[in-house]
User: What shape does this take?
Amino acid sequence: MLRLDERRLLGALDDLAAVGAIEGGGCARLALTDEDKVGRDLVVGWMKALGLAVTVDAIGNVVGVRAGREDIAPIMTGSHIDTVRTGGRYDGNYGVLAGLEVVRALNEAGVTTRRPIAVAFFTNEEGARFQPDMMGSLVYVGGIGLNEAYAAADKDGASVGDELRRIGYLGPVAPGAVKPHAFVELHIEQGPILDEEKVQIGVVESVQGISWTEYTVTGVSNHAGTTPMRLRRDAGYLAASVNLFARKLAWEMGGDQVATVGSLALRPNLINVVPNRAIFSVDLRNTDEAKLKEAEARVAAHIAEVAAAERVEVEAKVLARFEPVIFDAGLVDRVEHHAKALSLSTRRMPSGAGHDAQMMQRLCPTAMIFVPSVAGLSHNVKEHTEAADLAAGAQVLLNVMLELAERR
Ligand code: HGY
Ligand code: MN
Ligand code: MN
Assistant: This one.
């Protein structure tokens, strides 16, 4: 059996983590920043050194292809190398670098698979700077057009189109030009399940639905000391009440329902001024689309009720909305088979986080492989996965891809 070199995978993870390294061992490589460019250039260099034919598409997705015995649709793996501002070193990066180690193992063994092998990284998976998240893979599968993606702007008004041009990754290739026969993404779980249950491999069957909304609340700024409570039109109060309501709602709905008010900005943000402006985000997720819709409706009703009582105006902007995705059952079975064949413990599970794979399932049979995240930490510099788990996940990826690349 072809074996991956664990030491080299760990070394590549360290080398990439050094780009945009931040205090505590994490990474900050927000999409299309200078740090993202440096990371992209590093990985493209590694792809070329492995002999891959590298293309950059018009949304900055990068695909490296290793020729097969036949010039037919490839088996593709990949993920993302952009991070959140307080990112760890494994989220996304692990799946891309493990894909390169699959190629290296084939090169060193002098094996040419029937189908070509492709390794990709997609633009702006995180959605932390530009929304929606999974932007590059969503364009890749035709979920949104290039112009809509180019127009997305960050808090300072910089647009995706301008930033892609600025870092030199607005490529000539049409997104989706390489249509895979199948897509397999290896990723850390980013949640606590595998670690708590001491299971080595997550056999991912689905990705939960995601609802991202930004609310802009307009009230009246006023003196904190002289303004009686009955006269207040406090934008900050509404934002705070939504946070409390959403949290209570998630607890009450139970199951997979989660709710997060992750970003909040008050204006004028001064100790002695009642805020007249609040801009905040609400992230709701559930594996069940009907329940996700219920949560959205109840949050919207709460906002309308409090806005009327507080006499503030509210504007809502949907930043991302993806229904739950079910992966290809046959491919999921193969992930489970190869993990068990390596005597690894497994459990089937949904993904709590969004991934590029959820977009690729629109294009071709797709599946994901998870490895444990210590204490379930992610989007946190302390994100960690043990070396043995990293190696095990990569070996499962290699074996799944080898089988798929030879299958009719
Ligand atoms: O938000 C997510 O689930 C992913 O990290 N973009
Ligand atoms: Mn990720
Ligand atoms: Mn992430």
Residues 6-207+326-406 form a domain with the Aminopeptidase fold (CATH 3.40.630.10). The first strand starts at residue 21 and ends at 22.
